[in-house]
Specification:
single chain; alpha+beta; 9-stranded antiparallel β-sheet; 2 helices; 9 strands; 53% strand; globular
């Protein structure tokens, strides 16, 4: 666990990155999980992550976002969304099913279509004294072996950069 002091606040960080088991059908898939303490409420962080349409305003490599549909299903809301990811010569659109669980303070994302063979992520938010703990997990594999190899080289850094972008956005919105 890394403990850092930033602007007088203490941030507790735990993260792991691993490469999954290689099988005949699947190549190694990187995974990343991280838990951080942030000086905001769980509701503030949940709302920030749930606002997929605003991702192009602050997330690196996100050129555009489109919400295809939103359906209230009682204790959850299911959103179908497209993100356009742009990095150097690479520009791809991928679709996801984003399931919002407001009572559980959890957001699950499942891959629908695009450049991945597999992609899933989960965010969990929990109020704790002085703020909240935010947990993030992602597991994916590109269809293209070349992209998968390139992703493996910068995966951990990229995932941490994405999480930091949410932190900066929270600071902009909530001080």
């Amino acid at each position: 666990m890394d403990v850092s002091r930033v602007s007088g606040l203490i941030f507790r960080v735990e993260f792991t990155t691993s490469v999954g088991e290689v099988t005949r059908e699947r190549h190694a898939m990187p995974t990343h999980s991280e838990t951080k303490f942030l000086p905001y409420t769980a509701q503030q962080m949940y709302d920030l992550v749930a606002d997929v349409a605003k991702y192009p305003h602050f997330l690196p490599w996100t050129a555009a976002a489109r919400i295809r549909s939103t359906a209230d299903e009682g204790e959850k809301t299911v959103m179908l969304a497209d993100l356009v990811i742009s990095f150097k010569v690479f520009r791809e659109t991928f679709g996801s099913r984003v399931t919002l669980w407001p009572d559980d303070m959890r957001i699950d994302t499942e891959y629908l279509d695009g450049p991945f063979r597999h992609m899933e992520s989960q965010w969990n938010f929990k109020d704790v004294e002085g703020g909240c703990d935010v947990s993030f997990y992602v597991d994916f594999e590109f269809r293209n072996r070349l992209l998968q190899g390139a992703a493996g080289m910068f995966f951990n850094e990229a995932m941490q950069r994405i999480v930091r972008s949410f932190e900066r956005r929270a600071a902009e919105l909530h001080g």
